[in-house]
Write a structure and sequence with these properties.
Blueprint (H helix, E strand, L loop, with lengths): L2 E6 L4 E6 L9 H8 L13 E2 L9 H4 L24
Antiparallel strand pairs: 1-2, 1-3
Protein name: Zinc ribbon domain-containing protein
Length: 87
């Protein structure tokens, strides 16, 4: 199921939630209920806006894979480390 980021302009918080592509959340209460968090001091009926990046971008830090490694040398011996650009 895709994830989406919603922003509440009243409290300036961004919350990531999962839901079907056909769904759209429109209030802070809906977002909090889906995320399993308390609404806090922000009224439940406060409008929220889905951010353009939600559901589209998955950062490598979320996957736990970290940055891509440097490409290996063709022969493995053209630089001391065996990886081009790391000499």
């Amino acid at each position: 199921m895709p994830t989406y980021d919603y922003r509440c302009e009243t409290n300036d918080r961004i919350v990531e939630v999962q839901h079907r592509m056909s769904e759209t959340l429109s209030t802070w209460g809906e977002v909090c209920a889906r995320a399993g968090i308390e609404t806090g001091d922000t009224p439940s009926e406060t409008p929220v806006h889905r951010l353009a990046t939600g559901g589209n971008i998955i950062g490598s830090q979320r996957l736990g894979s970290g940055p891509a490694p440097a490409p290996a040398c063709g022969t493995g011996g053209c630089c001391p480390s065996g990886f081009c650009g790391l000499n």
